[in-house]
């Protein structure tokens, strides 16, 4: 693994920089996104035109087209991973290229109060070829949004479900670790989207703090939760409701204003209630907490802390394979260093390049009543990673993750990941 890892990382670092990202723009009507490296205000206001250099155009994002029928913004990202999974207590160890993911995004601003946003994911090479596996083409969201007021806006379509932090900001380009946390894949499935409608808005009238909310009604989950896959198989069709009942999702966000850019923070709370079984015999309740804290220690050094906790209860009996409760959490600490000459900013690199050292702790329990009910149940993991972000639209990563499963050997493993994500 190590020679291959060094070879791939060196090849990736030598790759040319050529793309743009508009993730922040697509999410601008939602809660504050966890942009991994926001540009300085003077960079965002840099003069555009024929004389503007390539790095500034890439950082700013140039995929905007004015037309007689409105303004179109185009963008997206692509990711490539190489993984080595080492089963050190038995089982087969493997190494492979994974998550060859291409995700175009488009936002159509019809007027200043009406827009349509769409994101399409091509996973594992697309669909329809018999030799591909775990591959698909899927709409991650397709939302029509009416935004007449800051305090009251409306949306409908295939919604990105307003749960937690990671699902609402799930794009690979935003994160300095490629491997997604247990809690964001197995408790509430990510990326999680459903047909529905909702209202959202923000209130900035109170001194020193702002509030944002997002309420949605969607098709809901079904009862196919398991001790090994959590909620992955509980996702439902976009065209059929298994019990003619709808799910309620609610997220509340708070953003304090400390009056300085040395410390910034936000915190959120999520709630859901829904019936998941045919005949409405099983109710599900869920709560979540998420947050972020950023410290700008000095001009060239900062610390970002990010985390999320999710807990679900299901009103039914449990067994070793069928849970009636599950939970998970993760916490990231990212140390960002900028050792590069100031003259390189917006010429060689972007406005805020950095090298990152990141640590993650995470845990999941997919069956409350049984310990070690499956290989994915009762796990704890530690991840250490390095990232290089020369521009906010490009990140190169190297990470190691150690996973321990309680009362089982088949869940113990080391995972090594080399990856890159690039915006376009």
Description:
The chain has 424 residues and is mainly beta. 8% of the residues lie in helices and 48% in strands. It has 5 helices and 17 strands. Strands 2-3-4-5-6-7-8-9-10-11-12-13-14-15-16-17 form a 16-stranded antiparallel beta barrel. 39% of the residues are buried. Residues 1-48 have low confidence and may be disordered.
Brief synopsis:
This protein is mainly beta and 424 residues long.
How would you summarize the topology of this molecule?
Elements: H1 2-13, H2 23-26, H3 41-44, H4 54-60, E1 64-67, E2 70-86, E3 94-111, E4 114-123, E5 136-146, E6 153-160, H5 182-187, E7 193-203, E8 209-218, E9 247-256, E10 263-275, E11 283-298, E12 301-314, E13 325-337, E14 354-365, E15 379-391, E16 394-405, E17 413-423
Antiparallel strand pairs: 1-2, 2-3, 2-17, 3-4, 4-5, 5-6, 6-7, 7-8, 8-9, 9-10, 10-11, 11-12, 12-13, 13-14, 14-15, 15-16, 16-17
């Amino acid at each position: 693994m190590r020679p291959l890892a060094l070879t791939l990382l060196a090849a990736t670092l030598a790759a040319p920089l050529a793309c743009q990202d508009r993730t922040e723009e697509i999410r601008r009507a939602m809660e504050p996104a966890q942009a991994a490296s926001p540009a300085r205000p003077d960079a965002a206001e840099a003069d555009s035109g024929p004389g503007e250099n390539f790095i500034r155009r890439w950082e700013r994002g140039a995929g905007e087209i004015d037309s007689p029928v409105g303004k179109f913004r185009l963008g997206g990202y692509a990711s490539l991973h190489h993984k080595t999974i080492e089963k050190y207590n038995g089982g087969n160890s493997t190494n492979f290229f994974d998550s060859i993911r291409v995700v175009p995004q488009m936002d159509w601003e019809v007027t200043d109060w009406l827009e349509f946003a769409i994101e399409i994911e091509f996973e594992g090479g697309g669909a329809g070829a018999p030799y591909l596996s775990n591959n698909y083409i899927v709409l991650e969201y397709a939302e029509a949004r009416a935004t007449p007021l800051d305090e009251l806006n409306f949306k409908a379509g295939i919604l990105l479900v307003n749960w937690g932090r990671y699902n609402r900001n799930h794009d690979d380009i935003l994160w300095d670790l490629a491997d997604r946390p247990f809690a964001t894949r197995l408790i509430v499935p990510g990326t999680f989207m459903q047909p529905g409608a909702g209202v959202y808005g923000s209130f900035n009238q109170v001194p020193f703090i702002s509030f944002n909310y997002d309420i949605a009604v969607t098709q809901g989950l079904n009862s196919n939760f398991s001790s090994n896959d959590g909620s992955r198989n509980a996702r439902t069709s976009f065209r059929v409701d298994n019990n003619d009942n709808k799910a309620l999702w609610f997220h509340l966000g708070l953003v304090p204003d400390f009056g300085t850019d040395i410390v910034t923070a936000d915190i959120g709370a999520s709630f859901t209630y829904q019936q998941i079984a045919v005949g409405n015999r099983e109710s599900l309740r869920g709560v979540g907490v998420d947050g972020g804290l950023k410290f700008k220690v000095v001009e060239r050094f900062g610390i970002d802390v990010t985390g999320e906790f999710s807990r679900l209860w299901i009103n039914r009996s449990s067994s070793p394979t069928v849970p009636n409760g599950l939970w998970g959490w993760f916490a990231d600490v990212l140390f960002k260093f900028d050792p590069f000459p100031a003259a390189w900013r917006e010429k060689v690199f972007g406005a805020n390049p950095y090298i990152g050292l990141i640590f993650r702790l995470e845990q999941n329990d997919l069956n409350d009543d049984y310990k070690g009910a499956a290989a994915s149940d009762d796990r704890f993991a530690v991840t250490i990673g390095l990232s290089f972000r020369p521009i906010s639209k490009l990140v190169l990563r190297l990470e190691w993750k150690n996973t321990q499963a309680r009362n089982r050997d088949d869940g113990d493993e080391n995972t090594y990941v080399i990856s890159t994500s690039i915006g376009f």
